[in-house]
Amino acid sequence: MITATFVRSAEDNRIVSFAISGHADYAKRGKDIICAGVSTVSVGTVNAIEELTGVELPASMRSGWLQSEIPLQADDTVNERIQLLLESMRVMLASIAVSYGKYVEVRELIDT
């Protein structure tokens, strides 16, 4: 199963980090549409944040793992753009989970 975990700030509800881990095991490697979809959404979001905001996320990635802490920027407009893209990723992954809940789970936690 793939688990996507989003951690939110208790103070302002912004996404402060995310981690996506696991494998769907929906089909053989190279034919697994669930893994392909989750990978496309998550890596595409990281790439979009970097290209559209100029902020390089401190992301670590390896097979079955993508994680990043979201740095708070001095520019509120940039922070809003980053949050919009992260919320979009959360919604897209949740949409995959609605159709393929046996293979994908989306969690949200509050940072304390």
From TrEMBL:
Domain of life: Bacteria
SUPFAM superfamilies in UniProt: TM1457-like
Segments crossing the lipid bilayer: none
Keywords: Hydrolase, Protease, Ribosome biogenesis, Thiol protease
Molecular function GO labels: cysteine-type peptidase activity
GO biological process, one term: proteolysis
Record Gene3D superfamilies: Cysteine protease Prp (3.30.70.1490)
Keyword Nucleotide-binding: no
Keyword Hydrolase attributed: yes
InterPro entries per record: Peptidase_Prp (IPR007422), Peptidase_Prp_sf (IPR036764)
PANTHER family found in the cross-reference section: HYPOTHETICAL RIBOSOME-ASSOCIATED PROTEIN, RIBOSOMAL-PROCESSING CYSTEINE PROTEASE PRP
UniProt record similarity statement: Belongs to the Prp family.
Protein name: Ribosomal processing cysteine protease Prp
Lineage start: Bacteria, Bacillati, Bacillota, Bacilli, Bacillales
